[in-house]
Write a structure and sequence with these properties.
about 110 residues, two-stranded antiparallel sheet, four-stranded antiparallel sheet, alpha+beta
């Protein structure tokens, strides 16, 4: 088996109301993020109590998580772009250190 080269990047897990998914993905696109995964219909418990992850009336009424692996230099610009949003809306961002193979998939 061939050795895989690992490169350090940051994983962002952006949780917000589904109605704001377009805002967040547009901001990630403009920041130069090469790709992301969207998980719909999240369930969980937070400061506002338990949130049931099922489609009630439409996809805007659920929580979503957008997961992106980004080079470290993109983290601060992305957080600066999301800060005003999170001052007005609920949600959270988790940031963790991860390693990826094929770094070319994550850099411009």
């Amino acid at each position: 088996m061939k050795n895989l080269n690992l490169s350090p990047v940051k994983k962002l897990e952006i949780i917000l109301d589904g109605e704001h998914k377009g805002f967040a993905t547009d901001m990630l696109d403009r920041a130069g993020v090469k790709g992301y995964t969207i998980v719909n219909n999240l369930s969980g418990k937070g400061r506002h109590g338990f949130h049931e992850g099922h489609i009630m009336f439409n996809e805007d009424d659920v929580l979503v998580m957008i997961i992106a692996a980004v080079p470290e230099e993109l983290v601060d610009p992305i957080l600066e772009g999301l800060a005003p949003f999170y001052n007005e809306h609920s949600g959270v961002i988790f940031i963790s250190d991860i390693q990826v193979t094929r770094m070319v998939k994550f850099k411009n």
